[in-house]
Amino acid sequence: MKATVELVSTGAELLSGRTLNTHTQTLARYLAELGLELSRETSAPDDRIAIRDAVRDALARASVVIVTGGLGPTSDDVTRDAVAEVVGAEIVLHTATREAIRQRYERTNRIWSEKVSRHALVLSSADVLENRAGLAPGEAIQWQGRRLFLLPGPPNEFEAVLQDHVMPRLKAVADVLPLQRVFQVAGLGESDIVRLLPEEEFPGPDVSVAYCASPGLVEIRLSALPSAAAVHARAVALVRERLGEWVFAEQRVDLETVVVEALRAAGKTVALAESCTGGLLGHRLTNVPGSSEVFLGGIVAYANASKIRDLGVPADLLEREGAVSPEVALAMAKGVRARFGSDIGVGVTGIAGPSGGTPQKPVGLVYLSVADEAGAKVEELRMGGPRATIKQTTSQRALDMVRRRVAAVH
Amino acid sequence: MKATVELVSTGAELLSGRTLNTHTQTLARYLAELGLELSRETSAPDDRIAIRDAVRDALARASVVIVTGGLGPTSDDVTRDAVAEVVGAEIVLHTATREAIRQRYERTNRIWSEKVSRHALVLSSADVLENRAGLAPGEAIQWQGRRLFLLPGPPNEFEAVLQDHVMPRLKAVADVLPLQRVFQVAGLGESDIVRLLPEEEFPGPDVSVAYCASPGLVEIRLSALPSAAAVHARAVALVRERLGEWVFAEQRVDLETVVVEALRAAGKTVALAESCTGGLLGHRLTNVPGSSEVFLGGIVAYANASKIRDLGVPADLLEREGAVSPEVALAMAKGVRARFGSDIGVGVTGIAGPSGGTPQKPVGLVYLSVADEAGAKVEELRMGGPRATIKQTTSQRALDMVRRRVAAVH
Q: CB contact, 8 Å: A387 with chain B?
């Protein structure tokens, strides 16, 4: 029988509007790899009775129940009490976890108090799941033929324990693994993709095609049962043929990781001249461990004075063309390359809004340039949306330009 | 009696990972204006039985139930069938809505089909709520003393009907507005806060205290009924007394917004010298509209050569103390201030990991410096956690140092 999976998210912040619940989407994407789907999600506040009832109801319907949040040391962390009541377990101190937390506190010179050790309280019947990203461990419990998992609430900790411990355990309950192929595209929008490869061209109904779009990123997923392997392979070949140069990965990986890997493989270094992205590009590259091998640094030239002084953009060019122009983007890319002595220089200038736009140069207009020893290239972007979306989409396109330059696609 | 509100979100896309559920957050923020809180949220797939059960359960607990999605014309739009079964209503064609849709189709030259008129199917017992943003109207149903609302699923249509029709009706049921106070703290961890102000010192059980922690941020929320106003005020005073200088806001606002506002109010400018944060600080400041008034730019000095060349850090100082040292952080802050001619300079250097640590200088060791005309200050941070957490926590502390410097707290 196919496993049914429910999620119970706990935390007042999810129901007060303070925090957007991302657990459902994260979990659903991991489950998809196993051919599993979420059959229900419930968000409950930090209330023992409410959590107890939600978990009890979920266990009555589903064979796998994942509960997140409320495992910390404060009085509103009541998840483990609620779950202990449902499954009839005691709460005990997990001494190995307590000791690990204490050592971590000593290493980082933080003041230990007995209260902190509440992170190490677990259900007596649980397997303790180490949390590499935080203090509170996860827990795995088998109860009346059901599998129950308690996971920490912070998204990075949730994903770490899910990846390290829950997924391997769920592989055992997923019977038929579907064929899946994920294509990630940063340089095209969903409508460009559908134009280059209309859905009706995909071979037959046995392959399902799903698009998932976020700012500057479209994920295309092809799924099929193992019995439809030949049709699935034809669909995969079709995407590669039509969209190949735009696909930056056929797996779940960040664009910045792909770019750092490509630079490392090519033995090339990069430096950044950022205006409207304000540091986001550098932030993203430096999110990748080991990026210091290929990223030399950059200039955040927010004020025009910095573009002139730090990047050598000619003052009369700025005056004549305006800060948001292909000429200035190009001069920024060349200027930062010269200053840092990097193989590649990137220049980004645009109007992130909400103010600062004109009819000729509206909010969402951005010029991107990538320069190397062989020359330079400039692209223009026109986008809608709020400031954060414009910055994010711009950073995606800039990173993808670097990737394609290094791969010599363009 | 205070109204209890539950949300039932329907739609396979919410549980497959394709769409992030934003309804919960949107609704919660509107409810907060009325002093109402969501007591539970459930996401169910496009399955009549699953939706019926979820709505029935919600009606058994809550006095107000809001159901979203599944009101369109296709075969997977089963919400109205499911709800009709729960409340024992017929489904009828709302001719005024049907006519409005038809006229809209004519105006926009779209091809009308009888299928489109399925948008105008409603429960016989419902008040029909006009949807200015789309085709499917909302519905308001009174049933056994409960209020039940059906709202369209697309986020903009959901919000339009919520705003136009649901909020005015809910104002009638929101009787007592609770007292709430939110404190936001960036410079302390949850365990530091609990040590400075142990929970047991809060006055009495009539005030509820909730903590919500994310990297570099703890939100403390005190809630009470109006009848407990005096106790609530004592609790608020207690937080201010113990944690005052660490509280960057008593409302829901980003630290970067507070910092930009503080700089603007003081008429001061800032420039950044970032090493381990790689641009994150600049990214965050430039997320704030209008930040160009106070943020001049920065140097992302990832390589040591850039620290020397662009920030004037003496090569022998780097050699002697190492890049991750209080002395270098200080020189970076002073150097970037001099280069950009800003009132305030910020220097950040540290080891974000996962590699690069030594026993003397482990991963998570960071030095932060803020310099202005009056002098400079250096702080040391020691953290655990992954690279992303270390960067985020560092950026919080750096922004908070700027805030406190401008507010002359330190």
A: yes
